[in-house]
Amino acid sequence: MGEVIDTTDGVSDSAAQAARELRVVFSRLRRRMRETYDPGDLTPSQTSVLSRLDKDGEASVSDLAAAERVRHQSVATTVGVLVERGLVSRRPDPTDGRRQLVFVTDVGHAFLEDRRRAGEGWLTRALEDRCTEEERRTVLEVTALLERIVRS
Description:
Oligomer: single chain
Structural class: mainly alpha
Distance between the termini: 26 Å
Number of strands: 2
């Protein structure tokens, strides 16, 4: 494909271009997958808090605020809406009776699983309909390479 030329900061042009293109493609892919499901009128911040609790486990509102890098009051409001919708619940912190821990309910887990299934279903159908078997194998090879990069 040609000679790889280092840029002034010691990074090849191809690495810089690949990084830019990956960022753009992953952003578009993520946005497209989000379009495949009904968000149930959740705001991005509500979705973020719900997903964080699902991934990281129960947490206090203060912990969530720090993790989300937003004000305590904002997260408290977000959690309140999620509680009203039955997606999360609160329980006393067993180590500190003054605090409450927020956790994802069964309804919240089902909501998130439905979202994941919808996005994965759309992507599966797109790969089946728009790619050849060889192209799908290439996608699998690239994802393995990206996984190696992420783990390094």
